[in-house]
Design a protein that fits this description.
This protein is of the alpha/beta class and 369 residues long. The protein contains 14 helices and eight strands. Strands 1-2-4-3-5-6-7-8 form an eight-stranded mixed beta sheet, sandwiched between helices. Helix 6 links the parallel strand 5 and strand 6. The termini are far apart. 41% of the residues are buried.
């Protein structure tokens, strides 16, 4: 009887939409359907999306979890200006069983780009200002949700902000999690360049070899990374799987954004607009990033590293990690991933978040309220 009743419900649902079945769905309709599957409905859950004042401007966050008692996990996206929010529907849902997940469109990125005057924001873009933004946001989350400590997870560019935050405020963090961690930009870029050139030669790809050899030395002798040269390096590194292992392009991720339940078309357009403003402004600082002299952290640290990551190569990260002293630390290799671990091995990432990260939240901690 129970199975029969479920079948009747399914038939009724199908027939209720039959009139429109022959009409193609718009991207907004698809997004609404996907959004419905992502909705948090548990009685003690939280599902909020809003702009908050951070660093003197409006910045967009979402806060989602099935149990408010779970620890907060703040995700610091990469790029610069490559927000995760547009793709979060692909991987974030299972995380919300264990964490209250906060996605943040950083200064100059995504929805935050659209909330502010781009010219005014462009003048404020710096590593220091954006690290301060992260500090302000963590303080806001702690006070608003009554948490003494939270988890912070930085991916790629976001790992620069995250590691800086761990240095400045270890007392705020259960742990810092680095994914595609940036440790030494110039060394990483050289490794990525050598990988692409060797792969092109092995592939007898004359076009790739010519283009890559034309930008040598890379980085330049003074360590500079001209934007045009980065474009060539990334073109061929991505082609040979240095961004997503086994894939020769980024289209699968960008295409998935177009169905996002969180982004309008204007928000999607803002991704490219924000990148065009943010990357040139931050590139001089980004090219000089070097954490090799950082030998001690006062909070636990977990590193997630893709074995085939040649966007922010993992070998300098492992070398740095082995020297680092911290209250607790763990290095996790993802053997079938390059740079996009959340997309490439989502199941294993969830397992390691639950097994290696979540236990670092101290049970019985008193909340601020």
């Amino acid at each position: 009887m129970k199975r029969g009743f479920c079948g009747l419900v399914l038939l009724a649902t199908l027939f209720s939409g039959a009139a429109a079945a022959d009409q193609p769905m718009t991207r907004e309709q698809v997004g609404q359907l996907l959004g419905g599957t992502q909705k948090i409905v548990s009685s003690n859950g939280v599902d909020e999306a809003r702009a908050v004042t951070i660093g003197g401007i409006q910045q967009w966050i979402t806060v989602r979890g099935r149990d408010r008692r779970n620890p907060i996990l703040l995700v610091l996206h990469g790029g610069p200006a490559a927000p995760d929010l547009a793709n979060r529907y692909l991987f974030e849902g299972p995380w919300t069983d264990y964490f209250t997940v906060v996605e943040w469109d950083q200064r100059g990125a995504g929805k935050t780009y659209g909330l502010n005057d781009p010219k005014a924001v462009a003048a404020t873009l710096s590593r220091e200002r954006m690290t301060q933004d992260a500090e302000e946001l963590v303080d806001y989350l702690r006070k608003t949700y009554g948490k003494e400590k939270i988890f912070v997870m930085g991916h790629s560019w976001g790992s620069v902000l995250g590691l800086g935050l761990a240095q400045r405020h270890p007392e705020w963090l259960y742990a810092y999690v680095g994914v595609g961690q940036v440790i030494d930009t110039r060394e990483g870029e050289k490794i990525g360049y050598d990988f692409a050139l060797q792969a092109a030669k092995a592939d007898h790809n004359g076009e790739a070899v010519r283009e890559l050899e034309a930008i040598a030395p890379y980085p330049e002798a003074d360590g500079a990374l001209p934007l045009a040269k980065i474009g060539v390096q990334r073109k061929w590194s991505v082609h040979y799987g240095g961004l997503a292992h086994g894939r020769d392009n980024y289209g699968y991720w960008a295409n998935a954004q177009t169905l996002s339940p969180d982004y309008s078309q204007a928000d999607l357009d803002a991704i490219a607009k924000g990148s065009a403003v943010t990357l040139p402004a931050l590139l001089p600082e980004l090219a000089k990033i070097d954490f090799n002299d950082l030998r001690k952290l006062d909070c636990p640290i977990v590193m997630f590293a893709g074995r085939y990551d040649y966007t922010t190569p993992s070998s300098p990260v492992e070398t740095w990690y082995l020297r680092l002293k911290a209250p607790a630390k763990r290095f996790v290799w993802f053997e079938n991933s390059a740079h996009m671990i959340a997309a490439e091995e989502p199941g294993r990432m969830l397992v390691h978040l639950v097994q290696d990260v979540l236990p670092l939240a101290e049970p019985g901690r008193k909340h601020l309220r």
